Amino acid sequence: MIDADSSIYAMVDQASPVNARLADCEPGDVVISTISFAEIALGVQLQEPPPPGVLEAFLEAVPLMPFDEMAAREYARLPFRRARFDRLLAAHALSIAAIVVTNNEADFADVAGLKVENWTR
């Protein structure tokens, strides 16, 4: 489950290591949470990268994963030490046993049981 930061990195830099890793994945192996999509869409509305057409093309390659009841229940169990988007994403990933792909590993370090990978290296 790719987070907003890594998604934006992939969308604005075609030569990024994130894109290299995405290219090695099978369709559907990587998803983006509707939580991360909301964070990116807000940025697009504020005229931050990526451009709207690039976001739509990204969603064709990386499908949206809806935040559902299981994710909401997991969210209710998490401590609130950081930004809410990060807590929501962590809960969503935990609810489906997904790995979070992020460049901000420290933002998720206090979430017990959450697996995190950094594809920017």
UniProtKB/TrEMBL annotation:
UniProt GO MF annotations: hydrolase activity; metal ion binding; nuclease activity
Required cofactor names: Mg(2+)
Signal peptide stretch: none
InterPro entries recorded: PIN-like_dom_sf, PIN_dom, Type_II_TA_system_RNase
A Pfam family: PIN
Stretches assigned to the PIN domain: 22-113
UniProt-listed SUPFAM superfamilies: PIN domain-like
UniProt keyword annotation of Secreted present: no
Keywords: Hydrolase, Magnesium, Metal-binding, Nuclease, Toxin-antitoxin system
Highest taxon in the source lineage: Bacteria
Family: Belongs to the PINc/VapC protein family.
PANTHER family (UniProt xref): RIBONUCLEASE VAPC2
Protein name: Putative hydrolase
